[in-house]
Amino acid sequence: MAVAFLSAQRSKDPSSQVGACIVNQDNKIVGIGYNGMPNGCDDDELPWARRASDRLDTKYPYVCHAELNAIMNKNSADVKGCTMYVALFPCNECAKLIIQAGLKEVVYLSDKYHDTPEMTASRRLLNLAGIEYRQFTPRRAKIVIDFNSINQAGTS
Fold first, then answer.
1. What is the pTM of this model?
2. Among candidates 79, 83, 72, 60, which has minimal Cα distance to 34?
3. All residues at 6 or more sequence positions from 8 whose CB lies less than 8 Å from its CB, including other chains
4. pLDDT tens digit string along 6-19?
5. Catalytic residue among 45, 67, 105, 118
6. Is there a catalytic annotation at residue 67?
7. Cα-flanking dihedrals φ and ψ of residue 83, to 5°?
8. Helical H runs in the chain?
């Protein structure tokens, strides 16, 4: 889950940085992604707004979710039987991708949109496909990455 959160830091979305990490049966990373605009589409030329009078002026018709990007960025032949760690419970569109890719499990941290139609549809799809999902329980509240620690190695 920490790798999913680290990946999310690359997102330019000002309101929601979401990351996903796919691991195989040996817990080796086979795919990583974060929410962002499609390849070749300038992040600065497309909207990042959550609300606007015209839906085309919001991020929703354009942004690729972290789950999609993790599946597309895979470094193995396929992700069948793998587990996806993701910051947010996947929407219905991502559930379809997860099912079609052959993932066996989804581990998520937040389910803050639980009661929306998209999440209800997502759970229904995942249940019908027999894909397990569970909420992640962190063993620690935070992980700190100290980039200065490398410069202090061997100075004692």
1. 0.90
2. 72
3. 17, 18, 19, 34, 35, 66, 87
4. 999 999 999 999 99
5. 67
6. yes
7. -115, 135
8. 2-8, 66-72, 92-101, 117-129, 149-152
